[in-house]
Design goal:
With about 575 residues, the protein is an alpha/beta fold. The protein has 3 domains: about 170 residues, no CATH class; about 325 residues, Alkaline Phosphatase, subunit A (3-Layer(aba) Sandwich); about 30 residues, no CATH class. Helix content is about 40%, strand content about 10%.
Length: about 575
Amino acid sequence: MLPVFSSPMLRYPRWWALLAIGLCLGYAVVTVSRLPAWAVPAIAGAWLGAGWLLRWGAPLRPRPRARVWPWSLLPMALLGLYIYLNDSFGIVDLGAIFFHLQAGISDHGGGDRLVAAVLYTLSMLALLAAFTWLVRVDHRWRYGERLLALILLVSNPLLYGMTQRGAAIVTEDGAWLDRRYIEPEILAVPESPPNLLLLYLESIERTYADRERFGDVYADLDALGAKGHVFEGVRQLDNTGWTMAGMIASQCGTPLMPAGLLHDRQFEPLEHVVPGVDCLGDLLSEQGYRLSYLGGASAAFAGKGLFYQGHGFDSVMGREELVPRLEDPDYVNNWGLFDDSLYDFTAEEIRRLEAKDDGPWGVVNLSITGHAPNGYPARTCLERQGEFDGEDILYSVTCSAWLARDLVERLEQEGLLENTLVVIASDHLTMRVSAWDQLTAGERDNTFMMLGSGIESGTRTRREASMVDLFPTLLEAMGFTIKGHRAGLGASLLAEPNQQTLVERHGLVPLNARMREENALQQRLWEGLVPNQSQEREEQESPPADAQVVESPHDATGEAPASVQ
């Protein structure tokens, strides 16, 4: 007899099957909970103990094996997909999944997750094989596994989210948010409009400023904030929790609600990104601004290039445009450029724009250092490594903060930031990282600070807000007069407190609930990509004269009687 046929795995398939199921069960529980990693073998051991006690796979009165396929296989695989997404990102955002599938994911930099994806796939295949063996051998599992299939489907947050989005189809009011949307409009322009430098720091949320939890990792941003105006309480609405969504929220004043089934060519890539609304670039371009975007990752990923090119930007530079300009072409990461290289190119671009002296300029920059799960710290940070190492996200946060401060101070020393508003913001809250348990232990908020022209140093404002409020705040900080201190769904955080934000007025949870039912705002964003939309929008935007709906009486235009909602 060949040795392979006498191996323990073949002689004791019952225990190998139960062990595979137990380990997968333990890992799933640890991933979606706050249990430590050592709980995996404990849960697997408890499962094996139950299997021994109840004789799973070896019943006292066995019945003939049945060559059946369990109903639970597909629900189990779908739950496995959710566990993988949860382990990768911490929060499973269906909007992000839908948007990236349509906007483009081929030029992503997540190569380090490919190994994890392979391991997950192999583990899932082992689990499905083990469970199939158990159902075929033990008739008791055959009788109960249909109920298990139903439980797995009902309890899967991934499917629960899909059904919630489906509520938009049958909701009685799918235009609640759209009625609160204010078309952005500049009513008056300052005598000398300032330049704009907008730095998005990938995943560097203001939560890291808590020194009790994270030490001095945020110290360099605190130092910058001391020279300007810091905003606290900028929360994360649904559909603003990934890079493109955060940039669109802060520049267009609206969450990024994916085109989804509204897109009239489901199997073709998007040609435009939120073409139905005017954003920061559109308004500044109309005022004669020369606008540039620079990011270390590919501009093709997730539609970044399409967004900026379609909203007033003259120059869009990503990995493909910048890597050939590197002195060391091998100094790149999975996504593209490290931030020390990117910031050097950003300084070059600002020098170029300053040298032309052809009206005000605006530069938007997206960093990569803080990207989950471990970040991409630049080699210029190695001398500042301190107590952290390259696998700890806190080291990457420290590096990102220092690089941003260094860039701003270099530009100041060169005199390149005269009459310039500098804005530093996180694009979104971070996804799952090594400090995840500490981050999620309390309330979280995004980084948002402004310094430079007309900004009083040492100012702090705490208001319950969201990323959509950055849009009107930036416009007013630049000296522009806008209608009612509002733009899009946002309210300027520089206005009087009676100009409440949506979060202040309604709360984060109710707003997120409204988001799942909204379809009119979604149609507005994707105007031109939605078939038969013009007639639908005309019907929605032409209420009777006595049906004006406003947030509060002082918001009424006076053009018609208004009801308050």
